[in-house]
Each structure stands twice: as C-alpha cells, then as structure tokens.
C-alpha cells in the first residue's frame, strides 16, 4: 500500500472521478472530460486499471459501451481514492505550465532526468516535451545556465552554482505548487527560514523592506535546497572577494549557525560569504535604521549618480543634475544595488507591473538612468531593478509638482575654518533651492554636535564616530563640470505651453509600417517632407530603441533619439493604419519626440501631460478613432475619451443648460 501513495497523479484521479460504477463511459466521453485524445484516454485507462487491481477495484471494458468502474474491496479502494493517497500531484495543462513544471523538476534535483519518464508522467509525447525544452533553455539563459544532454542518461541543468541559486530562488518561490508535495515543503522551510532571519535581524540591528525580506528568504531557501543536495558555492578568488562591513558579516555567521541547527546541514565559509552578500544587497541603508555604524555613500557611487542624471539630461533634457534630494535618494539606493549588480544577484519587484502602468514617465527616466549602470557593471539591469529606481524618480516628480521640504546639512572638514566655509558657500550657490540651513564643523568637535536637526553630512575626511544621518564624501561630489542652475517649474499655468511642442503640420493621421523599424522610418520620412531632419536622426532613434523600450503603455510608443540632434524642439504624432507589436505592447500611436538644447522651463509639465495621455487608454482609442489634430490637443488637455461627436454633444448640452439657467 505504501507504493500506492505515489501512484495516482492528478490526471489519474480525474479519470477515476470520470468513471462510473453504474453507467458505462466511452473513451470519447473520458477523453473530453480529461482534455486528451481518445487514444490517450484508452492508454490511461489501461494504466489506471493495473493500479486499481492492486487496490480493491477494476475497470470493466465492453465493446460499443465503454468502461465501467467495479469496486471489489470498498475499504481498500477508498484508501487509494481519498485521504493522504489523494495528495496533490501537479500535472500541467498546456505549454506554459509544462515549461514551469520542467524548470521546477530540473532545479529540484542534481541527477539526470529522462525525457521518456517525463513524457509518461505528463501524458504528452516526447516530441512535445522536446519542443517545450527550447523555451526552458531560453528561461535558463537569463541566468547564464544551459541544459546538458547525455545519451542514455537524460538532461540536467549546468552552470555556475551562484547562477543556479539565483534561478532556483526565483522558480521555486513562484512555482512551488508544482513540486511533488504541492509546495508544502517550501512553505514549511520558508517559515523556519523567516524565524532564523528575524533572529539575526534583531541581534545585529538589520532592517529590510517587506519585499527584500521575502527576496532574501527565497535566496536562503535556494541555499538550503542546494546544500541538502551537497551542492555548494566555490571559494571566491582573492581579487573578487567583496568588501563586506563587519556587522553584516557577523550577521551572516550568526544566521548560518541558526540555519545549520535548524536544517541539520553544514555551511562552509563560502556559503557564509554568499549569505553576507545577499544581506548586504538587500539591506536598507538608511542612517536612521543603523545603530552601530555609519552609512557612507562613496564618491564612486555619487559618480554613478552623476552619470545616471547626465544620461537623463541627454535624452529627455530634464535637468536633475543639482536636484539635491534626488541625488541623495539615488546614492543611498545604489549602496545596496551596487552589490547586487556587481555579483549578479537578482531581486524581484512584485509591484513592477503597477509601476510600469501608473508611473510610466518615472519608469522611462529610470530606464534611461540604467543605461550607464549597464555600461559600468557590464550587466543588463533587470526590469525589477528599474522599477525600484522608478519609485525614486516618481517621488521627485511629485516633489517638483508640490514643492520641496528643504533640508539641513552639516559640512565637516579636518580643521573647519575657511575650507568649511568655502564648501558651505558652494552649497548655498548650487543648491539653495533644496537647503534650509548650512552649518560647518571641524572633525574634533563632532562629539559635542547636536545632529537632531541635520539631514545630511558632507565631509572631506573620514568620520569614525556613530552618527544617525547619511555621510557623503565630497571630493568628487562638487567637482562636476555639468552643474547647471535648476530652473523653477512654473505651476498652475495654462495648457498654452503645449503649442510650443505640437504643430498641426506634424500630425500624421495615416502611417504605414509592419514593424517598429518600418513605422519609425515612414514617420521620419513624412516629417522630413515638412521640416528637414538632421542627418542620422532615424539611426539615432533606432539606437535609443536598442538601449531601452519606449512602449510603456498599451497602444502608444514615444520613440526619440538617444542624443540631441535637432535644433528645434518638436513632437510628431503618427497614427498607424494597423497596430503592430513593439516590444511589450501592441502600438498604433507614435509620439516621436525631439528636444533641442536650451532652456525648457515647462518641459516636465510637457512630459507629465504626455504620460497622462498615454496612460489613459480611452483617450488613446479616441484619437485612433478620430485621427484629428484639434481633437488630439483637446485629449492632451484632459478631454474625456470617447468619440468626438459624443463629447461635442455633451459640451453643447452643458452650454444649453447653462444658458437656460441664466
């Protein structure tokens, strides 16, 4: 009987439920109920009959009538068809589920898996499984993994252990319901891991967001899962060993001890280092959260922030180079992100789709800012990471609209005096819009200083005592040649500024194209007939498309050149005759943007208006239906979606009622 616990799979139980003890069922009826062919149903009946005969039942077959379930030993049969023996065993239905199932299966063991066994288990052909494996390999390639095929043995995953860990953390966390126990083992382990992690957090004063806590639990689950299979992280080369601070490293050692006791395993030193890396890459680096150490944003990090903001300026002409709060938020975020990107540690953002849908401008800025990060680290920056950056840019956009909460800063030098005052003067000159008070102090008087009203410290020297505010080393921070005066955003002005960007002669109601390349080329051709485009403009737009996608909302894309080429700012509106697949979305409206050099005091308002339009599918569909420039301008200014005729009738009715009331 012990063997029968594992004998009935999900489709076998479904077949058992479809059979009747009182009426015959044809193979066609069974096939329809199971979603398989009649031939497959007949084979399943044969297999199930063999198992039932050992467990108090049988299946009778009668020509032209079908199959009848016959129970000979009711008590023995019910132990098979219910209770523990009916424990969930996931059988995928469809290619997408099979791909995830194969990933779970391959990552769940280190031995070879035979395709014949998988084919028999899933009731599909070996040819079907082979076809699914091509997409499995595409998923594995995202983690730099591949499938090793060995004749007479089968297949297994091969690659670096750290990449297998990253892939395992993602797959088993999201598809553990496909595991043999239905995910019960994962949930049990995750709960025990959470308890160990909470103990380490409290002991070493570590702080994680809820999202990062779950990410870390999944990473530790993958570590335990692999350790139980005797698969361990190799020793890092000396020149690639990370610089982890003492508190994080001590927390990793303590966590390893708890995990060893909890799961009866041994984690060697490279595994402890792997835990430390993941803790450092997911920890909150806010000084208010730190009790025993300072949060220091290194000059190298601030240099990356410079590159990110310069990239945004080159593409969008939005000048955030001296936005003090944005720089600080990005700098603190990059402290942990730097570790993740250096060591290829993925992180999942469960709110990614919502960010892309509702904060499309912020996401576009974040995607542009990620381009220099890709160059610096030699790795693609994932959409999940870009989503986290988008939060920061969205906060900046909101602050720009609503005003700023000015900050207080302290400038620290080795001896105070003229050098501190000189830096303070430079701060006042460059960042007065963001700062309320600037104070100076030398390093010798820090112990007596009251930091309760200080938000940030800028220091030219190391600070060894504990302070509860972020510290920024300023050697490189103030040496950027690209410091530009921040232009005030004019709030509350009318929508007349839109006419500076949109002209009726650059509204094209019919554009052809079966691919995005064709669509962009044809739109550029029509623009060139109205105004002469600079040489290489089309190629510059395509290059930007290669760097990052521009279809953040359904039906709309806003392609643009990766650098400034035109001497005149313009937006060309093109409506395709038929929608085409861009990258993530089907697109029918193109908003090709070119921002020239110079002052653009209302540029942010322009971007906000365009993203508001893009996010409103009703307005976009109304434009596709009407294809009219005046109507487009009304839609930009907030006109409700729907047909132009209906909206005109509503407006006339409203005017008539107002007239009658007079």
Automatic annotation (TrEMBL):
Domain PRD, residue spans: 184-289, 296-403
InterPro entries: BglG_antiterminators, HTH_11, Mga_HTH, PRD, PRD_sf, PTrfase/Anion_transptr, PTS_EIIA_type-2_dom, PTS_EIIB-like_sf
Name assigned to this protein: PRD domain-containing protein
Keywords carried by this UniProt record: Activator, Repeat, Transcription, Transcription regulation, Transferase
Domain PTS EIIA type-2: 500-639
UniProt keyword Transferase present: yes
GO BP term, pick one: phosphoenolpyruvate-dependent sugar phosphotransferase system
Biased composition (Polar residues): 643-654
């Amino acid at each position: 009987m012990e063997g029968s616990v594992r004998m009935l799979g999900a489709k076998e139980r479904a077949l058992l439920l479809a059979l009747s003890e009182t009426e015959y069922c044809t193979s066609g009826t069974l096939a329809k109920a199971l979603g398989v062919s009649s031939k497959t149903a007949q084979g399943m009946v044969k297999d199930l009959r063999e198992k039932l005969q050992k467990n108090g039942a049988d299946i009778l077959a009668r020509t032209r009538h079908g199959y009848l379930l016959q129970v000979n030993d009711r008590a023995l049969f019910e132990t098979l068809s219910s209770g523990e023996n009916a424990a969930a065993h996931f059988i995928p239905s469809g290619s997408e589920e099979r791909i995830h199932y194969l990933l779970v299966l391959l990552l769940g063991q280190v031995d070879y898996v035979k395709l014949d066994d998988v084919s028999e288990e899933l009731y599909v052909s070996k040819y079907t499984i082979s076809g699914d494996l091509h997409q499995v390999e595409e998923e594995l390639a995202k983690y730099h993994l591949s499938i090793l095929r060995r004749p007479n043995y089968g297949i297994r995953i091969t690659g670096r252990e750290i990449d297998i860990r990253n892939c395992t953390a993602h797959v088993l966390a999201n598809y553990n319901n496909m595991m043999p126990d239905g995910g019960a083992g994962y949930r049990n382990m995750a709960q025990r891991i959470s308890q160990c992690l909470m103990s380490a957090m409290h002991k070493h004063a570590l702080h994680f967001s809820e999202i990062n806590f779950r990410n870390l639990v999944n990473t530790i689950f993958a570590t335990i899962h692999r350790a139980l299979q005797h698969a361990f992280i190799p020793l890092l080369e000396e020149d690639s060993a990370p610089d982890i601070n003492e508190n994080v490293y001590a927390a990793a050692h303590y966590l390893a001890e708890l995990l060893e006791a909890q799961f009866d395993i041994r984690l060697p030193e490279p595994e402890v280092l792997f835990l430390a890396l993941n803790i450092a890459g997911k920890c909150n680096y806010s000084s208010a959260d730190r009790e025993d150490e300072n949060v220091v944003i290194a000059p190298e990090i601030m240099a990356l922030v410079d590159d990110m903001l310069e990239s945004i300026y080159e593409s969008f002409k939005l000048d955030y180079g001296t936005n003090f709060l944005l720089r600080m938020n990005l700098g603190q975020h990059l402290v942990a992100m730097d570790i993740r990107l250096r060591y290829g540690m993925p992180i999942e953002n469960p709110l990614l789709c919502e960010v892309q849908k509702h904060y499309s401008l912020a996401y576009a800025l974040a995607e542009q800012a990620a381009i220099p990060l890709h160059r610096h680290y030699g790795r693609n920056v994932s959409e999940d990471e870009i989503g986290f950056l988008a939060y920061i840019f969205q906060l900046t956009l909101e602050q720009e609209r609503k005003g700023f909460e000015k900050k207080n800063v302290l400038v620290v030098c080795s001896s105070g005096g003229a050098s501190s005052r000189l830096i303070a003067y430079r701060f006042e000159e460059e960042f007065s819009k963001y700062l309320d008070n600037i104070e100076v102090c030398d390093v010798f008087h820090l112990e007596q200083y009251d930091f309760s009203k200080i938000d940030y410290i800028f220091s030219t020297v190391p600070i060894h005592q504990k302070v509860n505010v972020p510290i920024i080393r300023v050697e490189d921070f103030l040496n950027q040649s690209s410091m530009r005066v921040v232009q005030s955003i004019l709030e509350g002005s009318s929508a007349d500024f839109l006419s500076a960007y949109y002209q009726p002669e650059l509204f094209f109601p019919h554009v052809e194209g079966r691919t995005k390349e064709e669509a962009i080329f044809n739109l550029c051709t029509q623009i060139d007939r109205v105004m002469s485009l600079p040489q290489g403009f089309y190629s510059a737009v395509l290059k930007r498309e290669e760097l990052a996608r521009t279809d953040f909302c359904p039906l709309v894309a806003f392609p643009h050149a990766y650098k400034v080429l035109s001497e005149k700012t313009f937006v060309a509106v093109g409506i395709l005759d038929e929608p085409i697949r861009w990258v993530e979305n089907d697109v029918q409206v193109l908003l090709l943007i070119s921002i020239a050099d110079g002052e653009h005091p209302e540029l942010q308002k322009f971007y906000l208006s365009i993203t508001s339009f893009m996010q409103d599918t009703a307005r976009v569909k109304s434009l596709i239906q009407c294809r009219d420039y005046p109507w487009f301008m009304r839609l930009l200014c907030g006109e409700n979606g729907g047909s132009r005729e209906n909206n005109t009738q509503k407006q006339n009715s409203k005017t008539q009622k107002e007239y009658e009331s007079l």
